[in-house]
Design a protein that fits this description.
Helices cover 60% and strands 11% of the residues. It is of the alpha+beta class. Strands 1, 2, 4, 8, 9, 10, 11, 14, 15, 18, 19 and 21 form a 12-stranded mixed sheet that branches. Strands 5-6-7 form a 3-stranded antiparallel sheet, with helices on one face. A two-stranded antiparallel sheet has the order 3-20. The two termini are 113 Å apart. The structure holds adenosine-5'-diphosphate and magnesium ion. Adenosine-5'-diphosphate (ADP) binds at residues 69-70, 72, 146, 148-154, 261, 310, 378.
Amino acid sequence: MASAGGGSRGSVRPERHVQTGRGGNGASSSVRTKSAPPKRPSSSSSAKSSIDSDNAADAIRVRVAVRLRPKNKEDFTDDGDFTSCVELQTETKKLRLKKNNWSSEMYKFDEVFTEGSSQRRVYEAVAKPVVESVLEGYNGTVMAYGQTGTGKTYTMGHLGKSDPSERGIMVRALEDILASVSTSTDSVAISYLQLYLESLQDLLAPDKTNISIVEDAKSGEVYLPGAAVVELRDLNHFNELLHYGEANRYASNTKLNTESSRSHAILVVHVQRSVKVKDENDGTSTDDISNSNNVPIILKSKLLIVDLAGSERIDKSGSVEGHLLEEAKFINLSLTSLGKCINALAENSPYIPTRDSKLTRILRDSFGGTARTSLIITIGPSVRYYSETSSTIMFGQRAMKIVNTVKLKEEVDYESLYKKLECQVDSLTSELERVQKIRQEEKTKMERKLRKSEESLAELKRTFTMKCENLEKKNDCMKMEMKKLTEELNDEREQNKLLSDKVVEMEMSLSQNKQQQLENSKYKKALSDSSQMYEDRIKELLGKVEEEQARCAYLELELRGARQEVASNDNSSKMQDYSNAKELQNELLHKLKEESRSEIQQLEAKNKQLLSEKDLVYEELKSMQEKVMQETRHRRSLEDEILKLKKVVSKNGAEQLERGTSMLRTTSGFSSGGVYLPRTGKSRDSGQNDTRSKTFEGVGLSTIIALLKSEDLDVQCHAVKVIANCAAEDINQAKIIEEGGLDALFSLLETSENIIIHRATAGAIANLAMNGPNQALIINKGGARLLANVATTIDDPQTLRMVAGAIANLCGNEKLHVKLKEDGGIKALVGMVRSGNADVIAQIARGIANFAKSESRAISQGHRKGRSLLIDDGALKWMVTSYTSFSASTRKHIELAFCHLSQNEENTRDIITTGGIKELVRISQESERDDIRILAKKALNSNPAFLREIQ
Ligand code: ADP
Ligand code: MG
């Protein structure tokens, strides 16, 4: 065990107990409490265990030391053969109390002081830990208990004037306290009181007797509100005050005819310290109260140094009469009461009779309260006072069992807080004023800005409204323009349609023109022949006239010769003869003349007639030439127009282009693919015709057809290309057929492995298949089978396009349908969809449409019966599944085919089962062409099975 109190210094972890209130008025309230107000240890919490457990967090035992007074004269005087009843064992801090030579008892204390123990050691071991605790903010009590004359006053109150080493606990405590506090922030004040006959007297203000005791039930603090509290300036001041107090005590005792040993002296040291408060949030210590978490805290602790009256029984100290009897009663009361309380506390009794005496009330916090308490019991060595010594030791032993719960006595320093807050308020007020001023200025500025902003906003609104209006107007204009453009576009579309129609028309008119041109050339030739004939005739006639005129001249010459003869024969007979001859001659001449004249007249009339006829012929020729010129012009203009139309068509999108080109393709055979010259450019076409004619004229068709069998592939290629191009012209087709061209083409298609030859041959056959009689020939000669074979074996899209085109042309002839189907034409046609080529598919669609159309016609005319031949070969199925994914023109063909197939009741079941009915309904609603929609609706409405299916 460590020295009394010393061992526990570091182990105490007291609770912080903050009190409010600025003095000893007892009206305090807790502002910061970490624990409940001090409580007496409960009866269940064992004092014993607390004694052993020095390290209890908040519990600290009352430390008890025993001091043995040195033997004095009296001991020797009273007891000649002095025997000590006390034996101290300083090492074990034990005391042996010997009753007699054979009976003794051993007691253990926190500290034992022998006779020779110095005042300094006693102070340091007993009081200093308490003093330090007080300086840290805890209440503390140092109390001396013992028989009169055992050295209580010597230990506690010796001033040490003559010998400073004899300074008692009071002086030494104040020395330490005053040395530790700061004069600027802390204060130390004392009250010095005497308790005598249950009356509390103020030794520093002797007039104040019977000072009241106030206890704060909550905090357990004890206040003596009537007592003088004198703030210490320094140690001298304290010494003076102590001296003054002692003097007053002596005077009082003299007055009361008693001794100081009969009264209890109580020195109360009030220590007040300002502390830096730990900020609980960040753990830093600061004095700055501007932070709301920080409040100035003051530690308000009290140190009680109590020099008790002698603990001996009163009768031992002298007379017990009168006043002294009273005294003995009261002294006994306080000490008895103290003893009872100590007993109760030591035994953890639920009731502590604290209120029984003033002493126990004053010491309420010291035993079982919140103070750190050290008790020093003083004993004399003489056996004479064995029983007193024994009872003192027992008191000390019991006190050792008492456990206090120390608590920090801290209070919020409202004064400095108030001052600081006032300063803060002042500075905040000035800051507020400054801020308000700035705010006001800012407000004014902002108001100004706001006004400006409002103005600019209004302006913006105005401009915005105007802009909006303008935009709306523009929008309207745009809408109008859009509408106009849409209308124009529609018009243009219409016009395109018209133009397309016109193109077709023009194409027709061009072909007519060509026909006419041909006729014109025939006519021209006839005209020139007849003109030549007439010219020859006129020449002949003119020759005749000239002949006659020559004969006439000759006759006149003869006449003149006769006249001269007559004149030379100078006689009357001769005259007579002459006159006769002359008459005859005249007659003859007249006759001749008449004859010549009439003949000349006739000839002249004839000539005239011929001339007029010639004029007429010329007129006619001229008009013909004009007509031809006109036609040429017309044709040129048409060509120009076609070119323009093409541009327009190409501009107006792929669809129109597709339509336009498909129309051109349909009418002009096979134009693209690099094999054939297109028929769309008429100037080129005429040139081509010329070339073809020249080829025919120069080489001869039979020769070219013969060249188809050439061993030279190049020659073969050229020959087949020429034939293919020639086959585009109707007039050449008959010749080609006549010269065995078709057979040659078939054998070429069958035998050749060259792709160009395949393409060109198929193209030639396709061109020939445009013509009705040729179609029959092609089918009869096994062309359909051949084409079907090519369609299934060759994948070149250009070739397939030609083959599909050829079959598509054949499809238009209903008389050949059965054979075409038998020869696998339809199957091959549908099969070519595998190529995926749009042109091929367009031809397939056209073929199916042709087939369906002509088949429908044949059925309506009663030439055929039964369901469509297209169905078996999968055409309908393909139409249903593929119809929507193709170009507009292809769709149009398929739509038409649907319409035609739907007209035949025999097809009804197939159309329904294949799902064609849905397509038919779609066509009736969505087809781009009005006529097709009407046709589809008609087909739907006329077939009850369809109507049922739709519903
Ligand atoms: P008490 O206050 O208990 O009645 P005092 O302190 O008055 O006893 O002591 C009585 C006498 O004994 C005094 O003269 C005192 O000087 C002396 N005395 C007491 N204790 C000691 C001590 N330890 N050393 C020397 N003298 C002592
Ligand atoms: Mg004394």
